[in-house]
Every structure is written in C-alpha cells, then in structure tokens.
Amino acid sequence: MIYVYLFILLLFLLLFVLSSKEDVSAYMAHASDKSYPGEKFFLKAAVWCLRMKEMFSAQLGKNERQHKEFLYKEQLNKSRLGKKLKLLNPELSEKQQVKNFYLKKYSIALLVLFVGNLLSLCVAVSSQTGGLLKEGGYINRNSYGEGNVELVLSAQIEGKEAEEIFYIVEEQKFKEEEINLLYKEASELLLSLILGENNSLDEVTKNLNLVSAIEGYPFNISWEGSSYSLIHTDGSIQNEELADPEVVTLKACFKYDELEFEEVFPVQICPAELTDKELLIKSIEDALEEQNQSSRTDETMVLPNKIGMENVTWREVIQDSSGYLFLLICVASVVVFISQNKEVEENLKKRNRELLLDYPEVINKLTLYMGAGMTIRNAFMKMGEDYKKNETSNRKRYVYEEILLLCHELQSGISETEVYAHLGKRCSLQQYMKLSALLSQNIRKGSNNLLLMMRQEVADAFEERKNTAKKLGEEAGTKLLIPMMMMLCIVMVIIMIPAYFSFSA
C-alpha cells in the first residue's frame, strides 16, 4: 500500500505543478476570512480540475443525445443553485457565486483526500518500520519478566508456496544455575505457605493453600498437572507436535520452563496423523523451537536458514491497517463533496427564518416613517442609511441587505413599482410579497388608506412573530429531549449501581 500512497502523493504534486499558473484572485476577493494553510494550492488545483472537466466534456460526442441531456441537466442544476446562492448573497453576481461554490467544493474534497493520503502513508510506514524481525534474520527477546514476543512469520521454502506461521518467541530465560538457587529459596518458603490452617503436612485436616506462585520467584506451581502442552486437566490432548508415543505425568509441581518437582502419574499419549501441509508447518515450527531452545540465554534468536535440506526465506507478516484508514478518508472526501449542496439548503432555511423574524421590525419602521410624513421611497432610504451607520459587526442582516439593494435600484433610475416587485420576488416569502403588492398597488392606483392597511399589517406581523417564537421554542424543547434522556440514564446508573453492590455485600 505504501507505493499506492506514494503514487497518489506524486499525482497531487503533479497537479499542484500543472495548476500553479491558475488565477484564483476573483475567488480570494470574495472569500471569507476563514482559511487554512495552503488554501491557494488547492484552489488552483480545483480551477485546473474544473477546466479539464469542461474540456473533456466538450470533446465527448457533441451530437450524441445522451451528452446533450447531460449538459442540459448540468446547466439546470447550476441555474437552480445560482438562484439559491443569489438569495443568500444578492450583492454578488449569480455566475460568480456558482463558480466560487464549485471551487470551494472541489478544493475541500481535494484537501481531505490529500491529508487522508498523508495520514495513511504515515500509518503504513510506521507499521512497516515497527516490525520485530530485524535485518540479518534475528528477533530481539524481551528481558526477564517482560513477557513473550508474539508475531506472524512467512516462511518461503524454495519451490514451495510461502507459509504463514504464528509464533511466540519466549522472553529471555534464567540460566540453569540461577534457577537452582532460586528454587532452593522458594522451596524453603513453600511449606509455610501451603499449610493454611494445618499444623503440618503429616496431618492435614483442613484446606491447604495450594499457591500457584510465590512472589519474587519465576515459578509456576501446579497442583494438578505436569505437562499442559500434552494433556489438559479437562482431558483434552495436544498431540500435534508428537512424533512418537510419549508418557507424561499428571502431578503437583514447581515449574519453570521444563524444570519440575512432581508426584508421578504416567499417561501415554500417541501422535496424531498429520496431512502433508500440517507436516510442513510442524517441521517449520520444530525448526523454530529448536533454534529457540538453543538460544534461550542469548539476547537474540537467529532464525534457521534451512528446514531439513531445503533453504527457507523468512519474512514477517505485518498487519497494515492503513488501507482501511485511506478508504475511510475517501468516503469522508465524498461526503464532504456532497454535503456542500446541503449546506446551501441549510443556509437558505436560516435566511428565510431570519427574514420572517425581521419582518415585523421592518414593517413597523416603514409605518412609523410614513406616519411621520415620509414617502415610501424616503422611508426605505432612511432604513438603509441607519443600517449602514449602526452596523458594528461583520454579521449581515438579510432583510436590510435587500433594502440596500432596493435603494441602489431606486438610485439607478428603476421605477418604484418594479423595485418593490423585485423586493418581494427576491425575499420569496408570502409576507414580503404581500408588502410589495401593497406598495406597488399604491404607486400605480393610489390609495388613501395605505397607512391604515400598513398599521393592520404591523399588528398581524407581531402576532405571527409570537406564534413563530412559540414554534421555535417547542422545536428547541424537542431537541433537548435526547440530552435529558441521557442525563436520566446516567442518574439511574449512579443510583442503582451502589444499591446493587450494597445488596450483594
């Protein structure tokens, strides 16, 4: 997998080189302040990818019906997306916003894929360099008391398929003279430990404390069996490694590796019949075990060069899980790519909710200014100027941005009737459409009771805002049910666990 990740990384570097001359100044001019390191490289790469996509699409059969249908659907989707983006940012052109949207979408997907590829490469390299089999065919043993080393080896014998062997390299053992000294000390302590409530072993009337180990000594003390490698206490036999029948004993004993002191109960165990493959695996394991036993006191275990009369090649089988990580990153990249469209829909919903909540304020200001003697045109101009002066943060209010756009249209010479119709169309909410219809009708036909209708609209708008606030409160309460249920479960666990343990005691 390392070569795959390096190849993908090379493709990214080639993409960065090919796209180095692409121009992204138009996007950067309208981009938000939030950016990430190397954003310009991925934006240029996205521009290059989009350009190549258009060129490739243009070279496909232009007269083919399916190609024309594909182009039609693509243009239709862009048109719908452009209208939605125009509602969110009316000050920017629809074409530029669609282009910026796709640039952002492709650049983020490329970023996720690039970072995921680097992470997968690091995991793959780490797994390969962290192997236990060293150059020269040796494995470092753990020191005394640190436990055995478990690994998977691949044995390649000339002319035969490689066989994978799960093998345990034992920790570094004590030398025989060291074990004899430790045994003498431990045997002196054993009598006092195992007596329990009895006075001596000559007369045992109560349970013995048959300890399985003595602290500070490397012995396993078994009181039921002597050789668990051949026969277990439940009667199951492990005879795969036997070449000839063998007598073993069930006993109580000190045991360190193969050193035992025991009461003998002889049991004869016969070897099992093995297939050719099992015999091959057994010969490999026997060779490993022989090499292991011959180097028990050494710091390293050198693997055998031959199995019988044939040469063998050793290779450690390393579990490389980086492929799963890279697959997950690819899925995440696709999800991020697709989620960009959903983000537009969510922003559009937030915009409509904000327009709905701001409507009573706007209609109330408009009514107050008209009641004070201002014309409709001057009332909108006044609201636009106040918004510019009082804007202390970078956060925009969509309704006042629409009013600013309305003021620009009025200043550019567009008739008031068309301007008010444009306002209702851009807001695309029933309340604003009704307001634009009232204002347009007043301009065309004139109306003496416009102010009265506006005041009635203010009352209705505030009443509707109350209902909207109640609805939003109910939605928030519903969303809080999940964390409330989680807290209830936690409280129940906190109460019930101590009660359960108190009854058990």
- The whole-number mean of residue pLDDT values reads 78
Distance between the termini: 55 Å
Low-pLDDT stretches = none
Q: What portion of residues is helical? A: 55-70%
CA-based shape: elongated
Oligomer: single chain
Strand content is: 5-15%
Q: If helices are DSSP runs of H or I spanning 4 or more residues, what is the number of helices?
A: 14
In short:
The protein is of the alpha+beta class. Helices cover 60% and strands 10% of the residues. The chain has a four-stranded antiparallel sheet, covered by helices on one side. A three-stranded antiparallel sheet has the order 1-2-10, with no helix packed on it. Strands 5-7-8 form a three-stranded antiparallel sheet, with no helix packed on it.
Describe the structure.
It contains 14 helices and 12 strands. The protein has helices at 2-18, 25-30, 39-59, 65-88, 94-129, 176-194, 276-294, 322-371, 376-390, 398-411, 416-427, 430-445, 450-479, 481-504; strands at residues 133-134, 138-140, 149-157, 163-169, 220-222, 246-249, 253-256, 259-261, 266-269, 300-302, 306-307, 310-316. The strands form 4 sheets. Strands 4-3-12-11 form a 4-stranded antiparallel beta sheet, with helices on one face. A 3-stranded antiparallel beta sheet has the order 1-2-10, with no helix packed on it. α4 packs across α5 (94-129) and α11 packs antiparallel against α12 (430-445). The protein is elongated. It starts with a helix and ends with a helix.
